[in-house]
Amino acid sequence: MPMSLNATARKLMEPGKGILAADESEPTIAKRFAKINLPNSLDLRRDYREMLFRSTEAMRNYISGVILTEETLEQHAADGTSFRAIMADADVIPGIKVDRGAFPMPGDTGEKITEGLDGLRQRLEQYAKLGAGFAKWRAVITINDIAPTRNNIRANAHSLARYAILCQEAGIVPVVEPEVVGDGEPGNHSLERCAQVTGDVLENVFKELRLAGVDLGGMLLKPNMVLPGINSRDRPSVDEVARRTVEVLREHVPAAVPGIAFLSGGQTDEEATAHLSAMNKIVGLPWPLTFSYGRALQNVALRTWAGRRENFPQAQAAFTHRARMNSLAALGQWTSEQDRLAA
Ligand code: 5MM
After folding, report:
1. How far is the centre of ligand 1, averaged over its atoms, from the C-alpha of 241 (Å)?
2. CA angle, 189 as apex, 187 and 191 as ends, to 5°?
3. Pick from 125, 285, 137: which is nearest to 208 by CA?
4. 265 C-beta closer than 6 A to ligand 1
5. HSE toward the beta carbon, residue 20, CA cutoff 13 A
């Protein structure tokens, strides 16, 4: 019998585990590869993802699910083993990014609207047959002098709700990702502005999810942390970020949601880990908190791999270290000393 939505969501939130976001679209992976002077070829993309998914220690102990792209969901390692078989072996749930990307919103506010609803019902049926247990859709919310507009927040929240209910109909757990972007331009907003916008966005998202009839017990939320923009003069402490993030979430995220898995959003690896750990030290949280990081899990592994299969062991060690640090953070047990000693 297939697992219930709630059981899948809870398995993704297993204590001490989190989600690996490996769903870089082609333009994004091309950017990541370009930084280490690699072309964006099919073989290199396969090798890179094989290196990650065959990090057996990390996958077995610290990772509950991996967000894949359409390409990777059906891909095989160089020796012909399917990525899905590699994940099944490590008891990791395969997930899939189902949005088609964020495109400029009509008008000139600099905002984006995520596309991909047309044909989504049929695609989800196919993904479910291929074994996807969860699916992710990312909405991008911009902060600038005139944004976010009410129109953009509502449009993105509505799309998230339409995607989420379609996922649940297909027996797939929606991982709802409304990202208030902190590392884009101009990026000079304060921590408080991020808190206010994040609260507003979450309020609208849950309003639309309820209107669409989404079962809140059968979904996960993937939000940004409350942080100042990348070019802001605000320098909040780790504890301040943790406190404000939890305050905003408490105010706007119903306790019925089985878990929250944060995106890293351009934070340094150690910041993303430290913030998560500090949040998990706060007592009486209504939901478990973990990671669903892309860059903050992959940065060092990507550079260490450098496009060479012979570097797999070192790159896998780097990935395993980061995954273990974030596992400790998901339990509220991470320390910077441990991070450095073990590095
Ligand atoms: C891995 O990147 C994901 C896909 O982004 P694009 O569609 O823009 O290529 C992205 O949605 C990611 O899952 C989240 O933003 C979390 O990644 P970070 O790096 O912010 O933790």
Report:
1. 21
2. 120
3. 137
4. yes
5. 30
Question: Is 101 close to ligand 1, i.e. is its CB under 6 Å away?
Answer: yes
pTM reported for the whole predicted model: 0.98
Handedness of CA 75, 34, 304, 309 (dihedral sign): positive
Which three-class secondary structure state does DSSP give residue 91? coil
pLDDT digits (tens, 9 = 90+) for 43-80: 999 999 999 999 999 999 999 999 999 999 999 999 99
For atom 20 of ligand 1, the residue with the nearest CA is: 265
Q: Encode pLDDT of 119-176 as tens digits.
A: 999 999 999 999 999 999 999 999 999 999 999 999 999 999 999 999 999 999 999 9
Catalytic residue among 177, 203, 208, 281: 177
Q: Are 323 and 56 in contact (CB under 8 A)?
A: no
Domains belonging to the chain, first-starting first, are 5-342 (3.20.20.70)
* 281 carries an active-site annotation: no
Which has the closest alpha carbon to 85: 96, 97, 76?
76
Q: What percentage of the chain's residues is helix, strand, coil (to nearest 5)?
A: 50, 15, 35
Is the CB of residue 133 below 6 angstroms from any atom belonging to ligand 1? no
Q: Is 222 a pocket residue for ligand 1 (Cβ < 6 Å)?
A: no
